[in-house]
Amino acid sequence: MKRALLSLSPLFRSTPACNRTFSFARFTPHGYLSMSRSTPTATPFMSGLHVLRTPLSALPGESVWRFVASKIAQATHRSGVVRGASGGGHGGGPQGPFQRLRARINAIPSSYIFWGIIGLNGLVFASWHLAYIKYQSTGDSSSYAWMMQNFVSSSENLRGGRWWTLVTCCFSHEDTMHLLFNGFTYYFMAPLVLSLLGNVGFLGLYLGGGIVSSLAGIAWRNYNPQHSPRAGSHGASGAIYSVISFFACVAPTATFALFGIIPLPAWAFVTGIFLYDGYSAINDKRVGTDTAGHIGGLLAGIGYFVAKRLRIF
Known about the structure:
This protein has helices at about 65-75, 95-105, 110-140, 140-150, 155-160, 165-170, 175-225, 235-250, 265-285, 290-310; strands at about 10, 155, 230-235, 255-260, 260-265. The strands form two sheets. The chain has a three-stranded antiparallel β-sheet. By secondary structure, it is mainly alpha-helical.
């Protein structure tokens, strides 16, 4: 069972003004991007987001993306928040172990995080194929069984104490098209959200979304008697869906081009995925796809946005 994205990978409309390094910034504001609320008091997470009334032609020497990103970054940046005693303790203070670890991770170039995740997916993909080739050529299934035990999320693996499979399954693909679809979506979406959240924030969203997706898939398979409790799932789409839904919360009016043709606002795109996967999960319309895991990933991204907005972390 796979968390296949099928053909729902978002393509972004290109614009000459957006010339980012990863060529992901094919996201086109319609004149300006409005992210303000009608309430008289600003909320903590969105306090820096104002209506961008500056016309595109009034931004000489700076791309539209950099202008918008700077505004969003101001809203997502947390400054002056100190938890725990000043001076250390077990991670709450400004010099605590957690804060030092956080600073070290954020000091890593973001490109290392971006390409590192792609590299891990490629490495696990190659490991699956090597294990299968070994099984076909020699009849020895030990390597393939090891991959099943360590890179697939399932009730059986959890009962066996292999809790890490909740995370490792998010880097695991056996099918080439499954890997390509997920990789394509990640390539265009991840750099944008990574630049907004920073390394630690992005990894928290990506890995946390993957864990929630894995747990949602396991829970649904255990609840639904039509699924075998021994069944499992793997794939990065649950984690990627959390990135997409988070971005849709930050910029709901940003345009996605579905199949590269149909323009949709981000909020409508995420809503459509949620309804489609929800219907498929309830009616078992897409056998072989972990639709419950997709929904878990979407909800994780929304929950992460709400937690950031309420300054929970």
